[in-house]
Write a structure and sequence with these properties.
With 203 residues, the chain is an alpha/beta fold. The chain has one domain: Rossmann fold. The chain contains nine helices and five strands; from the N terminus they run E-H-E-H-E-H-H-E-H-E-H-H-H-H. A five-stranded parallel beta sheet has the order 3-2-1-4-5, with helices on both faces. The longest helix has 13 residues. It is globular and about 50 Å long. The structure holds adenosine-5'-triphosphate. Adenosine-5'-triphosphate binds next to helix 1, strand 4 and helix 8.
């Protein structure tokens, strides 16, 4: 039976805080493939100067080029409108061989927000949520999530905390550093840093 991991995000830009825990999770969860799924552009243009969906997709492709088993899916970017995870998961599961185990990776900061995700009960029936360690609030309130999917399922999710390294990098940090002329070497793959510089993103 194949195991496929999914990591969705804005990836504006992709950075080592995504890639290091995801590579660790790939081995830990014994995944065969890991799909990065950049989201479409948000309906409301955020205040920061965001990269286009095409550039975010391109940076993801550059980032995974040298990581075996990692792929980039354009399923959300191609749909143009912002997509709910449940729609993406449903569409993807129709393309995967029957019996494929799907692991939906989310950063630890997302745990206390999962109850706000559209159709979270359907999501946990399609995929096992696994958690990438990330600096976060010490005691997240998971009661609203338990009310929706039950205590047992929440325990199953929290038990799937991947014991990888904590990497205190965010896309916000990268954008801010670029805007203020600081280097981003060591925070994003070199190919991504080169792309950001050549395309004059985030300045
Ligand atoms: P921003 O700073 O723009 O809000 P971000 O760095 O949080 O962005 P996203 O693209 O929103 O990046 O994150 C996609 C997914 O990766 C989310 O599940 C998020 O929790 C997770 N993630 C992002 N950065 C890290 C990190 N440093 N460690 C672990 N998980 C992370």
């Amino acid at each position: 039976m194949k195991r496929v991991g999914i990591l969705g995000g804005t990836f504006d830009p992709i950075h080592l805080g995504h890639l290091i825990p995801a590579e660790y999770a790939f081995d830990y969860l014994k995944l065969d493939r890991l799909l990065l799924i950049p989201s479409a552009a948000p309906v409301h243009r955020p205040k920061h100067n965001p990269a286009s969906p095409r550039d975010r997709l391109r940076m993801c492709q550059l980032a995974v080029a040298s990581i075996p088993g990692f792929e980039v899916s354009d399923i959300e970017v191609a749909r143009a409108e912002p997509s709910y995870t449940i729609l993406t998961l449903t569409a993807l599961s129709q393309t995967l061989p029957p019996g494929t185990e799907v692991y939906l990776l989310v950063g630890e900061d997302n745990l206390p927000l999962l109850h706000t995700w559209q159709a979270i009960a359907d999501i946990v029936s399609l995929a096992r949520i696994a958690v990438l360690p990330r600096p976060h609030d010490a005691h997240p309130n998971l009661a609203p999530l338990e009310a929706l999917i039950g205590e047992r399922e929440v325990r199953a999710i929290t038990s799937r905390l991947v014991p990888g390294p904590l990497v205190p990098i965010s896309a916000t940090l990268i954008r801010n550093r670029v805007r203020s002329g600081q280097p981003i070497a060591g925070l994003v793959p070199r190919s991504v840093a080169d792309f950001i510089a050549a395309s004059r993103l985030y300045v």
